[in-house]
Amino acid sequence: MKKLDNIQKLIWEHSAQVDLPSPPDKEAVWMRLSQHMDIDINQDQQRIAPPVQRFLSKFKPRITYAVALGLALIFALPIAYDSFTTETFITQKTKFQTIQLPDGSTISLNAESQIKYKKDFNTNHRSLTLSGEAYFDVQKGNTPFTINTNHGQVTVLGTSFNVRSREDGFEVGVNEGIVKVSNDAKSVILQKGQMIDVDSPIFDEKNLQNVSYGNYPDWMHEKLVCEQTPLSEVCDEIERTFGVSFKFANPSLSDITVTGVIDAQDLNTVLSTISLLTQHEFKFDGDTCTIL
User: Fold this and answer.
1) What is the phi/psi pair of residue 182, to 5°?
2) With 60 as the cut, is the pLDDT of residue 8 above it?
3) The predicted structure's pLDDT at residue 196
4) Which of 68, 99, 248, 282 has its CB 3.0 to 4.6 Å from that of 253, i.e. a possible disulfide?
5) Residue 115: CB partners within 8 Å, gap ≥ 6?
6) Contact 106, 99 (CB under 8 A)
7) What is the mean pLDDT of residues 187-214?
8) Interatomic CA distance for residues 222 and 269, integer angstroms
9) 11-15, 115-119, 277-281: lowest mean pLDDT where?
10) Closest CA to 278 of 264, 265, 262, 267
């Protein structure tokens, strides 16, 4: 035991004479360890990222295409369904068309107008939509014949009448039978020889008037019947009929009112009559007519 004590004493004396390095700074060691961990993580990400990026880049065009295709289908399906289930007739400027409906009724479609109806027309309904102007000769039937417009709804069982629904107004005139004109606010009954002619969707019995001339409607007989009609509206109708455009040398000329019956078989005749009624000349430059 004494010998062991002498050895321990000797080791202690020699170790005391050795200069040992000072212990490392704890924060510095931790910082070096963190940096080493970051380097390892970044190297691992660099080794892993390229395959992932290549995988995503491979499928990204396909994903984009699938999304675009899905959006296209969302917009296209209703249009395709509508084209398969709906009949549509559209007339351009200067064009007129006569349409025979499945129930035997006929429609004379004025220029710049549109008619739409479902292909099952005359099965359990006789409903269609009009934008523009048309003359209807409706065959009698057990199912009401309904015309939907932006200004109101026209309902009949069998009669002849004209409907005009454009941005500048709403007109319904009856040649035969009885017609009901209605919207969310009001319902009005029109008898033979009566009409309404309003510039807004608001109408009631006070707007009822008698058709003041024979051969109504005028466009069906190649006429323009004007009763204190602003020149701008007359020119709009001429544009639809003959495919020309109008300009006014002075904007106030558009407010001049016109009264009279104009033969609309020939453009020169129409313009000469307009010049006579308004006391204003006109000149042509291509397809543009300027009122002076």
Assistant:
1) -145, 160
2) no
3) 94
4) 248
5) 88, 89, 99, 107, 109, 128, 129, 130, 134
6) yes
7) 91
8) 12
9) 11-15
10) 262
